[in-house]
């Protein structure tokens, strides 16, 4: 009875974590869309810096209140993570500027196979045939929904490649750091958010000027714009935290696959809130295909053998045991 209760509790926490991530991610996209489309605040990199600055304040308060215990993250690992994370943010923004929306969406879809490659390479993960096929179905469904015109140039391809690899590495590294140093989500945020905030606050205005030819300092900060900026920062705390929670509980690949559920929800809410222009049979069928693929992935990846770490075969295990035994005998002599 105890294992069942434990499994039920884990499943409930997994669902709650995922719903938390979906709610905050979709919410921040809606708020940012209103901020940028309605109020003209198009400085995405600086806005991200403010998100991490707000998250830093939150983690500092929680540490002061005793909810976050002291932990250790080596500086080299922290620097690697921040480099990957910042390249991901800047790379995605530049990719959107230099490429068509269609190719930008294709690049985002490429994060999944790259994340799979990283898990196979570093974690020796083995995927079943059903798990692989379900990922393909998800990619096809999201592609049908989101990919329209596709055009690319050399500098756009370079930017997209940097964005894809850095995003996959950043998300893989979240899981790696939590596992290696036994860091909780709040602990890891407490280590990484201040450095990301500081670096992006320094670089953000220049990157945004490159993207928009406008300085963030010259923006008309009226009351409504400031309200939406503040609202976006508050939601970002949950978004940043829920990302770390989900990747820690699942993996970077599962986070990406199920993350496309947010793409479908954003499309649906966009049609519902901002008009049905662009809604077609193709988009509708793509949504159904993507959701079916996600359900299939969830079922296939949790079955025995659906997604597991490779273990040494029996022969190599015996050889290693014999070698260890011989070494022990030599030491005794």
UniProtKB/TrEMBL annotation:
Keywords: Membrane, Transmembrane, Transmembrane helix. Residues 24-297 form the Sugar phosphate transporter domain. Residues 305-316 have a biased composition (Basic and acidic residues). Its main location: membrane. InterPro entries: Sugar_P_trans_dom, TPT_transporter. One of its GO terms (cellular component) is membrane. It is found in: Membrane. It is a multi-pass membrane protein. The chain crosses the membrane at residues 12-31, 43-66, 78-96, 133-150, 156-174, 186-207, 219-238, 250-273, 279-300. Residues 303-333 are annotated as: Disordered. It holds the Pfam family TPT. This is UDP-galactose transporter 2. It comes from Platanthera zijinensis. The lineage of its organism: Eukaryota, Viridiplantae, Streptophyta, Embryophyta, Tracheophyta. The gene is UDP-GALT2.
